[in-house]
Amino acid sequence: xxxxxxxxxxxxxxxxxxxxxxxxxxxxxxxxxxxxxxxxxxxxxxxxxxxxxxxxxxxxxxxxxxxxxxxxxxxxxxxxxxxxxxxxx
Length: 89
Description:
89 residues; mainly alpha
């Protein structure tokens, strides 16, 4: 495999990982911002108030987006396996 092909596989892998993780990271960011805003307004500095809603939101989004994540990762694996079969790797 030439360096261009290796870079293409790496670029595709990194892009796929970012796309698959984006919904979960976005929800974690939004929930964290909302909770910190509420804490700043009410001056409640409880540590569990930060983590528990964020964990619940992350698990909820993970349950909803699991088919999307699976299809994204399976497309990547099919493409890499096709490269292996064709002798591109």
